[in-house]
Write a structure and sequence with these properties.
Length: 220
Amino acid sequence: MPSALDHQLFVFFNGDRGWPAYDLWMAVFSSFSFWLPFFILAGLLLLVLGGFRARAMLVCLLLSVAVMESVVVNPLKNLIGRPRPNNVLAEARSVKLASVTPRFFALTQPLRIQPPRISVPPKPGKSLPSGHTANMFCFATMLAAFYGWRGALFFLPAALVAISRVATASHWFSDILLSAALSIVVTLGLLALYSLIWRRLAPRLVPRLAARHPRLITPP
């Protein structure tokens, strides 16, 4: 079970304030399927129109998200087995966008606000770590590494996504804190590995490109 502080922070963000706009935007930030088309479009634009820095960042990001999901997030979820708030708290409100396609039309539909599904005793869950939080902070760390302070601005939407996971009753506040810290550490380690691989292998595999870009990550 969560600590008293964790419980209080959860109630603060998830509690019913009578602000429909708050619930709506928390559900929007929490919905990966809502943002997926925008991510795909941004990735295609970077791939087609971006230079070496943008394409290198995109490749590193895709590799890192794959590692984050398969090697870090999912194994830890199964190992820790922490129940989600909406499985143990009677006051939890599960807040989700309406199930419509395309997801953008969910903005015109009422939210799905559902009561908790409590099991006694609590069943093992997948609350820690938060995959949404880990992936968004991976993205923010990657942008900061490649684009400096401009890229670091993405930590703001990453934080909003993390908070939205608490506001929609998917995670505890401690989940998102630990997931963000874990994601930053793992991403920095992967970036160091990618840079090492580039320095060692690129001169042999793509000598012309390596001559123009001896470092994978260059100062912005």
